[in-house]
Amino acid sequence: MIWLFLQNETSFFEQPLQVLHIAPEACFIHRFEKLHAKGYLTADLESPLAKVKMDVHAIPFEDNRFDVVFCNHVLEHVADDRKAMSELYRVLVPGGFAILQIPLFYPLPETTFEDPSITTPAAREKAFGQSDHVRLYGKDYADRLRSAGFTVNEIKYAEQLPQADVTKYALPLDEPVFYCIKPN
Fold first, then answer.
1. Cα(107)–Cα(77) distance, integer angstroms
2. Nearest to residue 100, comparing CAs of 132, 45, 138, 142?
3. Which of 7, 111, 131, 167 could form a disulfide with 121, with the two C-beta atoms 3.0–4.6 Å apart?
4. C-alpha of 100 from chain center
5. Longest C-alpha distance within the chain, in Å?
């Protein structure tokens, strides 16, 4: 779904960009490297796929560095997601965009559930849906991103595509694309 969204709704494939890809998905790395060459940086705290080892709470790049930031299925793992969101916003250029996906467990709670006293893998799985998650996002996720400064477009993109594409690519109808823009 992300590939189709980038292809159809953004200028991502039109010219080389400065791209920060946190927790890079293996299926994208070589394609994005080919397209954006030296402007494409992968980063992760632990993954051997990443070029740069970093903590999303303290991104080691200057302000306004990247045209695009990808950070998919990371924020539910970090201690302070609001700090991480602020860092993602900081390194994005004005007018740049970020795609910041998270897992959604339906029915969504109204507000994000966090409890730092829940620390065992079994208790985290029960409370947050996975043993290494530290929060369960609710309907307020887009508002949390807005509080970092982003303009957030929550786009149910699969619903806009032909049914043949939804079937062909097994796209989730209930997962919006969180397309976040740093205002100029």
1. 20
2. 142
3. 131
4. 2
5. 47
